[in-house]
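Lab notebook, entry 375. We have the chain sequence and a SMILES string for flavin mononucleotide, and the next step in the workflow is to get a structural model of the bound complex before anyone spends time on docking refinements. Request logged below.

Task: model protein plus flavin mononucleotide, output structure tokens.
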Amino acid sequence: MTDQHWVNLDELEALAMKKLPKMVWGYYSSGSESEATLRDNRAAFLRYNIMPRLMVDVSKVDTTLTLFGEKLDFPLLIAPMAYHKLANPEGEVATARAAAACRIPMIQSTMATVRKEEVAQAAKGAPFLMLQLYVTKNRDFCRNLIMGAQKAGYKAIAVTVDAPRLGHREADERDSFHLPEGMAPVELDSLVSAEEHARQATGDEPKSAVARVFYNQMDSALTWDFVAWVRAFSSMRILVKGILSPFDALRAVEVGVDGIIVSNHGGRQLDFAPATLDCVANIKRAIGDTVPLLMDGGVRRGTDILKALALGADAVCVGRPILHGLAVNGQQGVQDVIKMMRRDFEQAMRLSGCPSLKSITRDKLLKQGEPLSRL
Ligand SMILES: Cc1cc2nc3c(=O)[nH]c(=O)nc-3n(C[C@H](O)[C@H](O)[C@H](O)COP(=O)(O)O)c2cc1C
Ligand SMILES: CCCCC(=O)C(=O)O
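Result returned:
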């Protein structure tokens, strides 16, 4: 297995692990506490089988969709993740170029290591960009960030709602996770000094610098009225990321969001939160076709995408494999990840007898324990 030759995302992950410094690997791969949710995100996909329907003309399969008025090549977005420069010196620029080349949207993290204007430049040709928002206690800063993104051409914000505090990731505590000198989440420049991200903890502070910065800056008093607050000054679409309960999904629709991302933050926030795939159907039942429903967590195969769509998702987001591709081979590595997922999704559609996204329905799936007679 050379850098150039991996045949699935597990092999790519192993290559990334070998390449990255231990502290970075620990940060990327961790879930919180006992990592029950991290494991369950993957396990949930194994709990479903796909019942193929045969003798369907699948000589052409149409993977395209329209989301927020823009055409995507297939139903995949890049999930927001902090600090891409820890994987590759080009950081988010390489990721954005890959998104553009593959015609899928990228969601940029508040904690990006490249400025949003520069990411927007690199993403020219991508269907759209979204800015993930961590809501700071300082609301003037938050408003400026949103307005800056709007001005830079971002189409939407995704407000992360599952992180009133950062989850407890034990690898980060053990490794005293901090950013190398000279690297910082640049959008936060006016709030936090570069030294603060690199400083080792003293006294009773959280050992992980990322947890410390988060604790000091982000607003754990965030509630639903935030959506109306943003509406009052911004015309951008507003999504909420981190929804698991159908009651929260309904509440989000009530307060007027434009989309929901079902997520448990890749198992990095509340340990023992349910696997995201298990939450999709319930949430779809609750909100119907009111707003687009996205999901993330453990999506690694084309069949995973098919399962998420069959349960009611309109599209999925993928997280860690993007960082693995970036670490192993920069922009090309990210493109290879996306291309592989697209190829495998097409294959899953063909072999299950689904020539269009519309034909990927719940009756193609059988959950473990369900009798075949359910179909
Ligand atoms: C290293 C890393 C950094 C992340 N940073 C952010 C972030 O800045 N904002 C956010 O909303 N989610 C963040 N997430 C969560 C992802 O957006 C996404 O929910 C999760 O990674 C999806 O699961 P997957 O990695 O199994 O595909 C991060 C995840 C990882 C692994
Ligand atoms: C303060 C950065 C937080 C990034 C994040 O969301 C994660 O590591 O999961």
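Notes for the group: DSSP finds 14 helices and twelve strands in the chain. Worth checking against the assay data. The chain has a mean pLDDT of 97.
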